Write the structure tokens for this entry.
Amino acid sequence: MKKRHTNKDFAAVAFCTLLFALAATSVQAQNLFIPAKDADWIDDDPFLQQTVFEGSNCYYFCNPALSWHKKYALSLHDSTLVYVRVLRDDWKSWLLTGFWKPKTLRYEMSLRQTEQRAILDLLEAATQTAKPRNMDIGTDGATCYLCHNARKVEVHYPFGGTLTTLTVNALDSLCYATEHNDRAVLLRQIETCRTLTDEFRQLYQSTCNFLKPDKPYPVLNIHISSDNEILVNDKPCSLQQLKDVVKTFMDTSGTEIIKIKHLGEYPVSRGVINFSSSRNALYKLYCDVQKEITTAINELRDDLALKKFGKKFEHLDTDFQAAINEAVPLNFEK
């Protein structure tokens, strides 16, 4: 007997077809982030204020809509990667008070300058290519936010192998690497960051003006030879001259304008100090050279702190110290 199709059958088919079309449209759009609609809410969130905004305006933040106690964030603080997640406390606090008591966990991991740059470049490329769209379907109730120098974007996930999902997955893996201090995972994801950055730029280079084109950053090569001679860019330099050489390099090397909390738009040095030493060099000389480099950066930070806030760096509040650290970074590789 032939089965008759009712109006309900046709309605069900039409509804499923519509859902599929909507999902396909949304998936196709997932190669782009969208400008964050809740930017003001992000800035006012106490969790972010206490963790992400401690001297950083470049971050990744995951906010599950139905599980507020599982939000987490990854942010860059100078040359440190900071991962923070919030969990609800045990059942006892809820039984006694009727409220969940949040528990915040914080993890940190040091980065090399090249690793930091790879993450920053991805955040810049992902936020630079953001475009508004009318439709966005999230399947798990979570919204992910990215911020690069006050430019905020958002996306719902997951959605197949799109650029936004791959970006979120890479940043989630960086969270894992930071929590477990796993440099093997970190290095793999740094390469993924570079690959994704290239894809963003290749797809949208014609319509986006990227702030950091692929140019080599100025490098000051400091090397101690086997004869215990200090060489700066292959030229001899005395220990007494080294501090001034470093300060001049950081003051005059190529800069980029970055918006920094408490300082506004500020020209930050792009220069990288590359310090190496021969195996036969004296360890005391190695320590002395490293001390001179650190002293040079500290003096630059003191000068800026006095100019902007009227106090030396060590006497500033933590929030202002973070601003000075971002304005005068120690871009240092050994």
In short: Residues 69 and 87 are 5 Å apart (CA to CA).
